[in-house]
Structure formats: structure tokens, C-alpha cells
Amino acid sequence: DQDYEGAFKAVEEGLKRDYPEDRFRACKRVLAEDLGLIAAVWSASDPARASTIVDRLKSAGASLPDGPSTRFVLTWETDDNDVDFHIQDGKGGHAFYGAPTLASGGTLYADVTTGYGPECFTIPGKPVAFPYHLFIHYYSRGPMGYGMGKVEVVQYDGAGHLAFDERPYLVMNDQAFVGLGYLKQPL
User: Fold this and answer.
1) Dist CA 21 CA 36 (whole Å)
2) Is the per-residue pLDDT at 24 higher than 80?
3) Would you say 39 and 54 are in contact if contact means Cβ atoms under 8 Å apart?
4) What pTM did the predictor assign?
5) 140: which residues sit within 8 A by CB, 6+ positions away?
């Protein structure tokens, strides 16, 4: 049994917190979108409570997703370092901090240079440029000397179902590029 209400409450509380904008760029946006995805799945699993769930979502300043989406969310466990997220699509497009949008669809929200992330790349609608190659660039290691984290692929079908794929990494060398595989088709 899924605890959608518990997940909703945890993210709802996270949205109420204040985050230093210079540390966690786009954090509120990522959390608000997460809350919308949770509400969509929760409403689909419990239609009798859907209007109450949506009211609660709106009170939190978030909204339901308006269709399917694919999100790649990069986070890491170390402070004061810079891990850069890169996404290449099957049409030759390359998104990263210097060019955050793919012509085939999708945008990288923020370049976090002070540790932890999140850096999120979202493709609204159905992806059209498979395969997507995901990789990180360990731009600057911090005092801990290593970067450890994950990329989570989150796909929403637009009809109340989510699919996940986690891709952990560990990197220790400045300027290293680490491939995190391909998304070759919908999850």
C-alpha cells in the first residue's frame, strides 16, 4: 500500500520552509512540481478524495500537472562542490548550465554550484528524442573530496501513474565526466 498522504505531507512541509536562494536554486519549483505529481497519483488512487486533495494542493501554492512529463533530478550528498548535469538527446541536442534548453523539448532549471542540488531537467509532454544520455561533470570538488549522489528519472503518464529509475554515482576527480546511462524508451 502506497502512503500518498504521507508523501504529500512531507513535500508540503518542505514547501513551507525557507531555502537560501543562492544555495538551492529552483528548490521550491522542484518541490511544487513533486507535490503536483503526488497529488495526481493520490487523486487517481482515491477519486472520492480528489477535490479535497486538489484544494490542499492549491493551498500549498502548487497545481496538478497538465499532462505527461519526464524529469531527471540530480542531487548529491556533499556541500560546497559543483556537480553539473548534462543531458544529450537522440537528435544531437545537448543541455547543460550554459545551454539549458533542448530544441526537442525540455529545460534545465538551475545550476547549483554550492552543493547538494537539486538540478532538474524536465521534458513536458511525451519525450520525442530518445535516447537521452545522462551524465555529470564534476566541475569542482569541495572540501570532502568526493561527489556522491544520484539522478532520479521520474516519468508521469498524465493519467495518475509514476515510474522511477535511480542512477547513483560516486566521483572523486575534479573535471571528471561520469556517464549515467541512457533513457532509451519510456519507463
Assistant:
1) 22
2) no
3) yes
4) 0.92
5) 81, 82, 113, 174
Nearest CA to 117 out of 31, 8, 3 is that of: 31
- Report how far residue 147's alpha carbon sits from residue 61's, in angstroms, rounded to the nearest whole number: 33
- Is the pLDDT confidence value at 144 over 80? no
Closest CA to 64 of 43, 47, 45, 92: 43
Owner of C-alpha cell 534548453: 101
Contact call for residues 137 and 84 (beta carbons, < 8 A)? yes
CB proximity list for 130: less than 8 A, separation 6 or greater? 89, 90, 183, 184, 185
Give me the helices (H) in 46-147, please.
50-59
Look up residue 15 and give its DSSP letter.
Answer: H
Backbone phi and psi for residue 170, each to the nearest 5 degrees, phi listed first: -140, 130
C-alpha closest to that of 95 among 77, 79, 108: 108
Beta strands in 5-161 (DSSP E): 69-76, 82-88, 94-95, 107-108, 119-124, 132-140, 147-156
Q: Using the 8-state DSSP alphabet, how is residue 33 labeled?
A: H
Supply the angle between the helices 4-16 and 50-59 in degrees, to the nearest 10.
20
Cell numbers for 127: 519525450
Following CA atoms 126, 56, 75, 90 in sequence, which dihedral angle do they give, to the nearest 10 degrees?
10
For the stretch 66-100, pLDDT in tens is 999 999 999 988 777 888 999 999 999 999 999 99
